[in-house]
Amino acid sequence: GQGMSTTPIRAATTPGKPAPAPSAAGEMDAVKMERIKASEKALRDTLLGAVRVVIITLSLITSYQIRLLAVERYGRVIHEFDPWFNFRATQYLVDNGWNKFFTWYDHSVWYPLGRPVGTTIYPGMQVTAASIFHVLTGWLGLDVSLNDVCVFLPAGFSILACIFTGGIAFEAAVKGRKWSAFTAGCGLMSIIPAHLMRSVAGAFDNECIAVTAMTATFYWWVRSLRDEKSWPIAFIAALSYFYMVAAWGGYTFVLNMVGVHAAAQLFVDGAKNFSWNLYKAYAVFYFTGTALAIRVPVVGWMPLQSMEQMGPVFVLVIANLYAFVHVQSKKMGEREFSIFRRRVVVYGVAGIFALLIAIVQSGKVGPLSARVRGLFVPHTRTGNPLVDSVAEHQATQGDVYFKYFHFNIFTGAVGMVMCVFHKRSPARLFVAAYFFVTMYFSSKMVRLVLLLGPACAAASAVALASLYEWIADEAMTVMEVIDPERKRAVEKAAAKAKEDGSRAARRAEKKGFSKSTKQFRIGDTPAYMAKWFRENPDARKAIAAIVFAVCFSIGTSFLNRCWMMAKGMSEPSIMMRARNRDGSIVMLDDFRESYWWLRDNTPEDSRIMAWWDYGYQINGLGNRTTVADGNTWNHEHIALLGKCLVSPELEGHHIVRHLADYVLVWTTRFAGIMGDDLAKAPHMARIAGSVYKDVHPTDFYVDEMGRPSDYMRQSLLYRLHSYSKATDVEPLEKYEEVFQSKNSMVRIWKVLEVDEESKEYVRSGANRRCDAGGWYCPGVYPEALEDVLKGKVDYQQ
Asked: How far apart (Å, rounded) are the C-alpha atoms in residues 206 and 390?
């Protein structure tokens, strides 16, 4: 242009100071930004670390406190049914020592047969409680009772379960999020109702320590797979597994879960990427764990004779095949190795099937138990009427998951998917498999919701850790949208990144790739979203704030539900609270009242007949001999008990007079609680009918209007239950009522015309058939019952 200077315009400078070079200014800005980011990261790590410590501490404290609600309301009371046997067995161990405990044949239970307690009990809990009691009283000199140790032990062990569950989440989380996952795992496990259900104070049952043993085993197992040098930690996993075996019959799940994970990891890695660390860890775990497990008397050689424990054996065989193929792959070319691998797969599968058939045909490996079969059949019944009579063996309803897990059932599923598809590792694959397997099993049996608890907490912790770390990052970089200088720097960096992207696109276009780079694909969505997030810090912060608010609201709701559930789970069932018409709270203590009446008002050699549910409490609180209890080890004996109760009075008395001096019946429906013996009568009839074919279970029922069937009305149980309460029940001829509890929840009847000859036959020990060792002395029935016993057909699983 005319009159226009061609001299370039220079930037204004401060007089006396040269203008900095553009590159130098950029470097100075970059250094400054790096320092700011480093400072923010240090502050973030410090604050987040402090928050984690606080949350972990509060979680462990809460884990203990939330389980003490029962103690605050009812005092230091043992709950439910099974815990009373466990307490009595622990007392025997403390009083008599280890040797006598394992040679204890108890003739005050399962009259007149008795029970070899030492060889039919998982002794881990008794040994744990007795050891703690001896340490507190003997070593530390504290004045505590064994009852107090047993009451508080479940709450104390819940803390350890929280720590180990947090450890599993720690191992499964990706780098940079591990401690957040540990914190979330501890926090969730401390209050999640699926764990609370078996760990409140007073619930002195096997599961209260078994969950801790299970989580410990799983933690040490995944820890042994962290790197190629960590396999020796599998020895600790095997020791934890041994404790699990000693604690609970559910040890078979732990063994199979480790086997499933090892098999899945072998399949994912393949022969080419075979891990010797996995091979060594699994071999150490299986051989050491099995060698220790067979030392538990109740287990014996079952790990090698039970079909449900054969899976891990086959995994060991498969692991050796993988190892063999991996070694050979180093010696062969690609084509030769491909042919060799196919042959190994074909021959290996054929060999495993042949081995399985040989094991089944040999008869030395028992079939799957009724409970295990029930996990795989499409219906809700196992086929065993005794197993099906237990409420916790029923199929799980859908609402149970929200009730016991709340939002974690959804975040747990998200965590499972993350573990499978994002930065997969042995620990992450374990958490995914653990969640998936327990989710399936818990759907089949409501009791197994307990197993899903730690899996859900760990999987959910993995997902929540990623979410919380992102929220923390956004919170600590909020200056990006507040400080103008920072905002300009961020915008400048985004513009530079965009320019760099444009240059790359132009270079690609010159090389002929313009069509493929401009075409949008569904798979590009995550990349586009990530790009949008990087370029829009304002939106990022807003979304993070909204997500935090939603999480806080859901978390508060979850916390409130956990405390509400804890209150409900803290009801001990052996005593309960109710409200009068004026709204005042009254304590219903009829059950203990009736057991104490037996203890104080009947001869010491009295024999008490009651449905098997109550045997442990009668024996533990009433200190009287019982006909059956909750061990349910002898199906035929419980069937005989059921036959006594569902038969007409005179027919039933023909059996009862040889077995019992008193009959105790639950009649809680007269206090407004319907789950009494009349409600259980159909189960009694089914169990009796499975052995004694003259009992027809379908004839025993109460219709929708509360009217009993003719057979029900004639039965001994109905007459004992409803005499003087229903107008259609005439006075009994062979029984005399001697006690009725304050709120009519329990009735006790004295058996008339007891056969003293049969009683003396058992009392003298003449019915005992002792082995050469002298302590194993199972009893036999009185001869007068031979005619009745001839009519039984032993139940077949």
From this structure: 17
Distance CA 608, CA 738 (A): 13
Give the pLDDT of residue 6: 44
Classify 607 as helix, strand or coil.
strand
Extract the runs of DSSP E, i.e. beta strands, from 606-745. 607-609, 625-626, 662-666, 735-740
Contacts of 698 by beta carbon, 8 Å cutoff, 6+ apart: none
For the chain, the average pLDDT equals 86
Tell me which DSSP letter residue 679 carries: H
Cα dihedral 109→112→113→118 (10° resolution): 30
In this structure, the dihedral spanned by the alpha carbons of residues 190, 155, 71 and 122, taken in order and rounded to 10 degrees, is 130
Q: Which two tokens mark 102?
A: 């394992």
DSSP bridge partners of 649: none
- Report d(CA 405, CA 402) in Å as an integer: 5
> CA angle at residue 189 from 186 to 194, to 5 degrees?
175
Three-state SS at 697: helix
What does the alpha-carbon distance between residue 759 and residue 764 come to, in Å, rounded to a whole number?
9
Give the residue carrying structure tokens 């409420």. 391
State how far the Cα of 235 lies from the Cα of 8, in Å rounded to an integer. Answer: 77
Residue 407 near residue 551 (C-beta atoms within 8 A): no
Burial class (CB in 10 A: 0-12, 13-18, 19+), 334: exposed
Give tens-digit pLDDT for 23-36: 555 565 667 667 77
Tell me whether the omega of the peptide bond preceding residue 112 falls within 30 degrees of 0, making it cis: yes
d(CA 775, CA 787): 30
Partners of 608 in the beta sheet? 626, 662
**Phi, psi values for residue 768, rounded to 5°:** -90, 140
For residues 684 and 642, the answer to whether their CB atoms sit within 8 Å is: yes
Beta strand 607-609 with 662-666: parallel, antiparallel or unpaired? parallel
Decide if pLDDT at 522 tops 70.
Answer: no
Question: Which of the 8 DSSP states describes residue 662?
Answer: E
* Exposure on the CB side of residue 575, measured as CA atoms within 13 A: 18
Q: Cα(567)–Cα(196) distance, rounded to whole angstroms?
A: 10
pTM of the predicted protein model: 0.87
Average of per-residue pLDDT across 462-483? 81
CB 605 within 8 A of CB 754: no
The answer to whether 450 and 207 are in contact (CB under 8 A) is: yes
Helix (H) or strand (E) holding 184: helix 178-191
DSSP characters over 248-297: -TTHHHHHHHHHHHHHHHHHHHTTTT--HHHHHHHHHHHHHHHHHHTTST
Residue at token pair 């069932």: 573
Residues 6 or more apart whose Cβ sits within 8 Å of residue 575? 74, 77, 587, 588, 589, 591, 592
519: left (phi over 0), alpha (psi -120 to 50) or beta: beta
Residue recorded with tokens 């008002």: 601
Q: Identify how many contiguous H helices and E strands the chain contains and give both numbers.
A: 35, 9
Q: What is the pLDDT of residues 640-658, one digit of tens each?
A: 999 999 999 999 999 999 9
- What lies within 8 Å, CB to CB, of 183 at 6+ separation is 52, 55, 56, 59, 166, 461, 465
Task: Please give the Cα distance from 23 to 27 (Å, whole number).
Answer: 6
Distances (CA, A) of 308 to 255, 314, 375, 733, 757: 10, 12, 12, 50, 46
DSSP of 543-571, one letter per residue? HHHHHHHHHHHHHHHHHHHHHHHHHHHT-
